[in-house]
């Protein structure tokens, strides 16, 4: 965690539905979208802990679901 507790952070999600924290004042980088949550680094980390419950990338989840459904 950073030592600058005054910096606002935002939660981002990429196309594989993986989460990241990013400084709120900066433009969202390509390939990422805002999750709709902004706050302290600690609050954003707590948001991610609550919402990112399956760490597998979306493509892997879909591939595994296809294998399970084919059986």
Percent of residues in helices: 25-40%
Q: Main sheet: which strands, in order across?
A: 2-1-3
Backbone CA Rg: 15 Å
| Helix and strand pattern | EEEHH
Distance between the termini: 44 Å
Low-confidence segments = none
Proportion of beta-strand residues:
25-35%
Give the averaged pLDDT, no decimals.
90
What's the main sheet like?
A: 3 strands, antiparallel
Shape category: elongated
Number of strands: 3
Briefly note the structural class of the backbone: alpha+beta
Continuous helix count: 2
Give short descriptive properties of this protein:
71 residues, alpha+beta
Short description:
With 71 residues, the protein is α+β, with helices and mostly antiparallel strands.
Structural summary, described in words:
The chain is of the alpha+beta class and 71 residues long. Helix content is 34%, strand content 27%. It has 2 helices and 3 strands. It has helices spanning 41-51, 58-70, and strands at 9-14, 19-23, 32-39. Strands 2-1-3 form a 3-stranded antiparallel β-sheet, covered by helices on one side. The termini are far apart. The model has no long low-confidence stretch (mean pLDDT 90).
Layout of helices and strands:
Elements lengths: L8 E6 L4 E5 L8 E8 L1 H11 L6 H13 L1
Antiparallel strand pairs: 1-2, 1-3
